[in-house]
Amino acid sequence: MRVAVIGGGISGLSSAFLIKKGLKDVEVDVFEAGDSPGGTIKTVQKDGYTLEFGPNGFLSGKRSTLEIARLCQANGYLVEASEDAEKRYVLKNGKLVPLPDSPVSFFKSSLLSLKGKIEIMKEPFVKPLNDDYEETVGEFGQRRLGKEAVDYLLDPMVSGVFAGSVDRLSLKQCFPRIWQLEREYGSLVKAMFKLKSKKASPSGRLTSFKQGMEYLIKSLVNKGDFCVHTGKKVSHVEKRGKRFLLNTSKEEYRAVVFAVPSYAYMDIAFPLKERVIEGLMSIKYPPMAVICLSLESKIDVAGGFGFLIPSIEKRRILGALYSSNIFPNRAPDNRILATVMMGGDNNGWIMDFKEEELMLVAIEELSEILSIKKKYIEPVAMRKIRRAIPQYYKGHGKIVESLEELSRQIKGLFFTGNAFYGIGINDCTARAFSLADSVIDFLKGNHA
Questions:
Q1: CB 106 within 8 A of CB 90
Q2: pLDDT (tens digit, 9 = 90+) per residue, 332-391?
């Protein structure tokens, strides 16, 4: 009995690993169109720097990725972000302002005006939304927290997580926990006080690996008892009776797991594709550029995690991470590694610029924001990504529902990936656990 996994990113590899671990007598083949597995996770070692061109880590408060690391024996190389990285900044009127992390710092902060703070204080008295209208993040924030909070709190948060727009992303799909809290408690502030004593769902610390996030990919491949076939682009999946046939293999498969970006489905023929392809193609992936810069360690960059830039500030970058402040050994001792983000859903213009031009823009922006001379900033490397992070617009839930309905109709066909069940590493690994259980149940005949 064999299972095919199409897509060798973290979703596909975790699913393959768990399926094989759950059923030893099942052969699992992973087909990856690229030259190497890993998907969006990309770590590069260069001149003493550890560069991340994809996710920088995952939060330890959710256990799925930690459990995957334990199972593939990578947990001995875990590293948590430094305490200094708890400090985060937001740009306001050209100056970096610390993001409040307590009620006292909130009232003292200059990030919001007195009027903006009063709007947030009124939040417990705002009536919850009772109808089925699907709000954007911006609509929700405007209704409950006020415009200033949207501009200087929610907008940079959305930019930092999704590189997206508060006016287009669905609150329910992108931040389901926030959506759920309003419905359970009627107010975010009320929920915060009630949940504080229960210590419910802590976010945890940002966590990675000493060698970078790609170490998890290598561990899954090396420790997983499954086969990875790189350079194999699946273009045809056909079901004959109870078996699936793929153009990339002579084998027959009892189950097929799709773990590819939504846009990749356009080039793959599969059963009942016409029922879901319109929705899949509607998921937007805006471009991004990740630019790694080196600063002299004597430069005062205010420390901390880095800074985010609200859209209202009209800058050409989304923000920057001080990667060498977050995790140890990310840069030589006398240097600071800054990772600058550009592009996103509001800045598709980056595709019209050459890489060297974007590098110059990043240096100019960092120089102005940090008030340091450009000569103290040196380029290290960059990566321009044509399609980066999938955007969960309003109606995204219906796309996911249509895939799940297709999976129920075509027995043995399963779907996963960051286009559907959350964009974070934890989201992908959590889905891998539930999907692996479903595949194993199916193979055991529970749903045959």
A1: no
A2: 998 999 999 999 999 999 999 999 999 999 999 999 999 999 999 999 999 999 999 999
**Distance of alpha carbon 343 from alpha carbon 180, whole angstroms:** 30
- Domains in the chain: ranges and CATH: 2-37+62-79+211-283+392-443 (3.50.50.60), 112-196 (1.10.3110.10), 286-385 (3.90.660.20)
Q: What is the pLDDT of residue 130?
A: 76
For 187-226, b/e burial (b = at least 16 CB within 10 A) is bbbebeeeeeeeeeeeeebbbbbebbbbbbbbbbbeebeb
* Distance of alpha carbon 158 from alpha carbon 285, whole angstroms: 15
Nearest residue to 52 (alpha-carbon basis) of 164, 210, 174: 210
Unique residue bearing structure tokens 């050409």: 316
Which residue in this structure is represented by tokens 């600071």?
336
At residue 12, the pLDDT reads 98
State which amino acid sits at residue 369.
Answer: I
Residues 103-133: pLDDT tens digits? Answer: 889 899 999 999 999 999 999 999 988 778 9
Cβ count within 10 A of residue 172: 20
Task: Choose among 249, 245, 253: nearest CA to 270.
Answer: 245
What's the rounded mean pLDDT across residues 202-227? Answer: 93
Percent of the chain with pLDDT over 70: 97
- Banded pLDDT at 302 (limits 50, 70, 90): low
The one-letter amino acid at 366: L
The CA-based dihedral angle spanning residues 76, 39, 158, 266, taken in that order and rounded to the nearest 10 degrees: -150
Number of neighbouring beta carbons within 10 Å of residue 26: 18
User: Could you tell me the two tokens for 235?
Assistant: 């273009």
Comparing C-alpha atoms, which of 408, 403, 414 is closest to residue 447? 408
Q: Give the mean pLDDT of the chain.
A: 94
| Residue 152 in tokens | 């200087």
Distance CA 221, CA 215 (A): 10
Indicate the residue type of 35: D
